[in-house]
Structure formats: structure tokens, C-alpha cells
Amino acid sequence: MTEAQAQPLQTLEKVVIRFAGDSGDGMQLTGDRFSLSSAMFGNDLVTVPDYPAEIRAPAGSLAGVSAFQIHISDHDILTPGDAPNVLVAMNPAALRANLPDMAAGSTLILNVDAFIDRNLAKAGYASNPLTDGALAGFTVYEVPMTSLTLEAAKPSGARSRESERAKNFFALGLLSWMYSRPTDVTIQWIEQRFGSKPEVKEANTLAFKAGCHFGETAELVGGPFEVKPTAFTSGTYANISGNTALAWGIVAAGALARLPVFLASYPITPASDILHELSKQQHFGVRTMQAEDEIAAVGAALGAAFGGHLGVTTTSGPGLDLKAETIGLAVSLELPLLIIDVQRGGPSTGLPTKTEQSDLLMAMFGRHGEAPLPVVACQTPGHCFHAAIEAVRIALKYRTPVILLSDGYLANSAEPWRLPEVAALPDLHVPFAAAPATTSPFLPYARDPVTLARPCAVPGTPGLAHRIGGLEKEDGTGDVSYDAANHELMVRTRAAKIAGIAEDIPLVEVDDPGDDAGVLVLGWGSTYGAAAAAVERLRRRGFKVAHAHLVHLNPFPPNLGDVVRRYGKVVVPEMNLGQLTRLVRAEFLVDARAVTKVQGQRFLYSEIEAAVVAVMDAAP
Amino acid sequence: MTTTTRKDWASDQDVRWCPGCGDYAVLAAVQSLMPELGLQRETTVFISGIGCSSRFPYYMNPYGVHSIHGRALAMATGLAVSRPDLDVWVVTGDGDGLSIGGNHLIHALRRNVNLTILLFNNQIYGLTKGQYSPTSEEGKVTKSTPFGSVDHPFNPISVALGAEATFVARTHDMDRAHMMEVFRRAHDHRGAGFVEIYQNCNVFNDGAFEKVTAREARGQMLIPLVHGQPVRFGAAGEKGVVVDNQGRARIVDVAAVGEGAVLVHDEARPEPGLAFLLSRLARGPYEPTPIGVFRAVERPDYGALVNRQVLQAHERRGPGDLAQLLSSATTWDVPAGTAPSRGPG
User: Fold this and answer.
1) How confident is the model over B258-284, as pLDDT tens digits?
2) What is the full DSSP assignment across B215-266?
3) Residue B320's closest chain A neighbor by CA?
4) Domains of chain A with bracketed CATH
5) What is the ipTM of this complex?
6) CB B68 to CB A329 under 8 A?
7) A463 and B42 in contact by Cβ < 8 A?
8) pTM of the entire structure?
9) Which of A224, B69, B186, B267 could lock B193 by a disulfide, CB 3.0 to 4.6 Å apart?
10) What homologous superfamily does CATH list for B6-229+266-303?
């Protein structure tokens, strides 16, 4: 494809492409393949899918549109991009659903074969947008992808339905040519994937090549363009989604702690993929249980934790509601437990496939009684791996349940991730209490003077048999106690144990190159990428802006108070109505301002950029 | 292995059930049984939920967890699956196990988790001071039903059989020897051993089972189920159970139908149908009531199946290797070069 460059190669720093089609059009696969060839080529990239909520929405309908966005660049990037530069739409519904996100002047590559009356009607178009002027201001390329694919695939001998299905590979081929992607990666993949079905393999290969050739010879579409490789830190990379990174982080944490992992979960979007991935890892000694409900899941995980396994449960908001009582029991029993909440739009069933950060206050306070526990948040897909390890480290060392917050965006978004050196990962081993040498009574609630953690006395250990429960316990012995002073002591001790973890976590780092910014952008969770990009853009415009991001939400890093008080203005972007803002204001008595968005969609960097400018412009 | 005595199984905590409560008899039976079973304190765990009976673990001396209302079986399942070396017992009640925790009960039974489940049925909420329970009879007048309950009750044995439990038995708190024998069978059963214990609450529901469990009544009112034996009762075994041509279990005079017509109890029948018929024989503990083991069949227990898969994966793929896992996706290498530059996007 590259030997006959008739048209001059134009260089781009970055490009954002969105592939959109019907659920059955294979857009996720197309996006994945484009991502991998871009990654192998050496670009930095971030991807995000946009699935329909329905499993089988009617073909051609707006509800059935499935999209995949990829941002590739020659430099380090942090987000899947704001407005796409290019939209590939396989049918009218895909155009209609995605057009509002397209900036004026951007490029639309449309499968005109699909723009027939029936499909236009299904998409709700009263007239054909190709001819009624609705696309004025866009660069439109009309490509008969279906018919070209059918023609190209003829020699394969595949049935016409199978050949027609190969049109996503035609689109992939076309875009591969436009952006000078290596083609061998994709052709090899087709051969492996469809090796058992020679006709389908051939049809897909022919369609892919036809797409490339069409771009090169038809001169109908723009290009070719190139996006040069990014300068990466050296190492081995993989393209990884947040949910896979979480699952691998759990496996790693078990290995680093030398504990078998026991995961009990109930299926729930968008967390189920963690259960799926871990259920493949039995050879690590990982046991997974699909429980009868969310409560059983956290209960079984807690039972396994009592038995000395690494107990984990994964869920999303509605499931966290249900688990609350058992998490409170874990606080009282002081057993290590990892609860992962992949947040989605709420309240109630809300927006199951969409992202939000609105469970922070529930994670902090969503239990009856004084029931504090550590809260950790993931900030990028790759960071999910390290966040899982950090959450387990805290849980085991302090013998406490820990809530790890991810969200729907991180769950499905992917980016190149530099594989960590296994030897460089932390040792999480916490020894079990050994059988006592004397016959003196065992004190299950005796505490380590530094961590305030109680001993890990697992069943099977002679001499340590003891009873624990949800009733208030006497300090030391753990016996049931209704004593007033003892209850106050225990409440305050449990709180002090969690508060003390602040001394054992990293200080929050402030990115303030000139050390002279007047405004601090303080984020948490998945807003990291958009916030960092917004700060970078503001600096290029001459603004002095500092940026800090929290991984530990409870306790806060010990220097956070000093940091937020150092800046005149503190802006907190979050996908809720101001939950971290509320915590920061309450904790440090500063005038932190929330920048909020609750649309089930991630923040765009331009939104944060504009909001920060507005805050800077406002009177102090 | 150390030999233990009953005393070794009693904790130093004061037992705080009401004087005269049936729970004392169950506790004594269990504590007496432990040495006979040859169990060790360090490998035995009692897990309970919430309710009067759920205080049980505090009065025992092995490992124990007094969990939260209805969730003992959830915790016990996680423990039994992850630690098949332990003997895990669950103590629950009619409210804890059949109302708030009903879901966990049927799922633990269908999965056949290797647990011994003691369900204390006193047909009342005792700890909350006297509301009707899911096993209370219709019309029951309690604090929450001053004009009589209109709830149709569960029959715990029917529920367990409906969930395809592999071991289902009933005993009562007035007969320690019977309790010990049934508990022993439940414990020795591989999988979920479910025992309903008729247990008297002398404060809020006194005498609920008296019509069938009182010493002088038992001969006429309890129908002992003995594997391989005709189902007969009465002072001289003059009464028996037959299945009529309508598919119902009925009580008959043996003399009238002939000995050969009496149902022979087979606890090992693969189909739970006959056991279910027996569970429906009495509408409540005021009619002649079957007691003993309704069903005892073999089926692999859930934990064993889970752990077998783990073992097989280990044999097939070798021990997990973290570096290998991390590189199991498509990877690419970036050689040493210039440091990355942050861009605005």
C-alpha cells in the first residue's frame, strides 16, 4: 500500500477518529484493530467505546448505534479527544447519533449504500441529509462501502451475507490508508482470527485490501496523512482497559501478598468484565464465585477473608447500596476486604452503561454508625492495576475493608500501558499470627501500636480460636461489651486507625511549574486525563494554573490541607454535583469550587478549560 | 489430634438466653457431640446471623463469627469454599434463615455447600420481642398481628427439599439423643446438611411444639423416619403412612391396609418427591409429624468442584506467572529514546 504514493503525505500531530455503525456492523472490532495497528506503529493513543444499552436494538435504529473513538498522536496524550476530526458512519442512524459531536469543518466518511429510504426513516430523517444541505460545512466523502465490499469479496466464495459483513474491514482498510497505518498487523490478525473459516478470512482480507486500494486510487477521500510515532519511555507496552487492569491488579495483589484470591461478585454493568477476567485465572489459585446476589457476594468474600484468603467483591452503585451492611460488619470485625465500585450514572438503575463519579460520598459515609474506611480511586486505565495493589496493601496492613472507586469510562477506555517490572512491585505480605507459646488467653483485638491493626488469626491455627461478631467488642478480648466507655474507645480507635493511614500514603504532588499559579485544579478519579489536558492548554494560553490529583480519598494525603490553602482558588472538576468539593470544604475550610457534569459522559478538556477560565475571571 | 471433652467446647461467656429456652438443650447437644465427632477446636468454625439462636457461637469455644441478619450462609459459603479443611457450622433461625436470609439458604442448598446448617425454628421473632415469623401459623396473634397473621407460613423441610438439598432432617429440642444423632448425620454428610430443630421459645411462643414433642405425646404424634423401614408410628406401630392413588401421603391404620401397603422410607431416593410428600403430611406441629432424616443423597459439593477446577487449571497451565499474565495481551517494545512530551489533549 505504501509503495505507490501518488498523493503527498501530510503530517498531523494528532487525529481523533470515531467509527460508528449499527451494533451488528463490528465497529468495536474495527476500532480495536485500528488501535492495535496504531499502537504497534508507535503512536500514543486513548480509546473509548460507546455501546448501546440494549443488547439487540432494532437494526438501523438510533438505539442500536455502536461507536468507538480513538485519539492518536505523536505526543503523550491523556484523553480520547474532545470533538472527532473524522466520523466514519456506516448508516444514517450512525450519522444522526454522532453528528452533534462533530465540529464544523470536520470530515464525514459515509457508507452511501446504506442511505436508502428505509434506513433514513429508521434513523428519523425526514429527508436525505446527503442531499438536503444538512451536511453543509462538513467535508463529506460518500463511499459505497457495501457494494465495493461485495464486489471485492466475490473471489472468496463467501456467501453474500458474510461478504456484506466484511464492510467494516473495508472501512478499516480505507482509514488505514488515510492515516498510513501498517497493514500487515491487521492482515495477520484476520488470518489468525478467521483461520478456521477460509471463505470468511478471504472475504475480510479482500475487503480490507479493497479499502486500502480505494483510498489510494480513487482520490475521493483526503490523505494520506501521517501521525508520527510518539516518544515513549522505553519498555514493553500493551493496550489495556481499566477493567482488565483491575483484574490483573487483583491477581498481582494476591501474588504479592502470597494469599489466594477469592472473588465473589454478582453480574452488574459495568463491572462484570472483572469477574469474567478473573474467572480465567484459576491457575493463580484465584477462586471466583458468581453469587446469588450482591449481599451474598460481599458476604462470601468476607467469609473467605476470615479464612485468610484475599477477599474481593466487585460491583457498581446499586450493588454498593446492597453491600453496605456487610461492609459495616467488616469494619467491626476488622477484616481485610477489597470492594471495587465501577461507578455508573445514578440514582437507582440510572444509566448502567454510562459513567459518573457520584458514589464518592456513599463510599465515604454510606454505612450506619461511625464506620470509616479507606477509599482509593483509579485515575487512568493503566493506573487501575496499581490502584488495586495499593487498595489491597492498605486492607491487609490495616485489616480493614477498602473501597476502590473506578468508573464506566475507565472500565472500557484503553491506552498503551507500560508493563511494570514484577520485581519492582511492592511486597504486600502480612504474616498470620502464629500459635502462642503460652496458654494465656488470645486477645483478638490487641493492636499493633503503630498501625492499630489487630492480629490476623485465621481458623486452623491452634491456640487462637476466638469469636468475633457485629456486636460491640471489648477492647483487647473482643468479647461482647455494652460498656459505655468501651464503645466510645472502640469507635475512636477504629477512626484513629483509618486516619493514621495518612502517614503511610504518598503526599499529593502539585504540578505547578513556576510555583506561582493562582488557581489549583484538584481532581480525583477518571477526570485526570481531561483535567491535565485542560491545564496544559491553559498554560499554552499563558495562564498560570496548578494541577493536583487525588488517589487517596480517605484519608487524604497529609499535605492536602497545606496545598489547597496555598492557592487563592481551588477548582474541582467532578462528574457529580460536587462531592469531593464538599469534602475539601468541610475538611479544610477553603472556598473550593466545583465544576460539575452529570451527563453520563466523561469531561471534555475544553469544558474544564472553560470552567477554570470562568473561575479565574470571577471576582475573588 | 487431641481428644476433647464437652467442657473444651464451652466458652467462658455467660449464656444469656432466657431461663427455660430450648436453645440450652441444643447447645448442650452440640457441645456433647463435638468430642464424639473427634473435631478439633482450631479447625471448627460456627457462623451465625442475628437472632436469639445466633448468639450460639459466643457460647462455643472454637472459631466463630456472629455475623449480620440473614447473612451467615453467605459468609459461611465463602469460608467453606476457600477453606475446605475446616468444619463449618451455621446456626440460624426461622427469621434469619427463612425470612431475611431465605435467598442465601436456598442457594447454599442447591449449590450443596459443605456446611452443617442448624435452623432453630421457634415460629416467632424472639430477640425483637414477639412478632410473627415466616413459619408462624396463619391467624397467629402477635405484637405485629393483633388481629391475627394472614401470612401463609413456610414449611422449612419443604423449602429445603424444593431447593434440592442433599440432606434434610428434622429434630426437636426435647430429645437430646435424637438431636445428637441427626446432627451427627448432618455433619458426616458431604455437602449441605440441613436440620430443622423444633425449638421452644418459652417467653413469646411457649408450647408451640408441645402437641408433638411432649414426652407423653411423642408416641402418637411423632412419625420416626428410619431408612429402609416402613413409616409407622403409635404405641405398637399401629399407624402407618401410605401414598394413595391421588399421590397424597396419608395416615392409615396398618391393620386396615395391610403391612405391605405402608410406605418404606428411602432417604437415598434420587427424586425428592416422596420426601416432599412426607414433609406435607402435617400441616403444622399439631398433627402427626415426621421426624428424622427425610433425604440423604450424594452430590458433589460446591467447594470441592470449585477447588477441583483450580487444581486442574494449575496442573494444566502450571502455577500462575505474573510477568506472563501481563504480557498475555498483544505487546510491543519501545526502545530507549527521548522522553515523552505532554501535549494538550
Assistant:
1) 999 999 999 999 999 999 999 999 999
2) TTTHHHHEEEE-TTSB-EESTTS-EEEEE-TTS-EEEEEHHHH-GGGSPBP-
3) A284
4) 10-227 (3.40.920.10), 238-420 (3.40.50.970), 431-503 (no CATH), 510-617 (3.40.50.920)
5) 0.97
6) yes
7) yes
8) 0.96
9) B186
10) Thiamin diphosphate (ThDP)-binding fold, Pyr/PP domains (3.40.50.970)
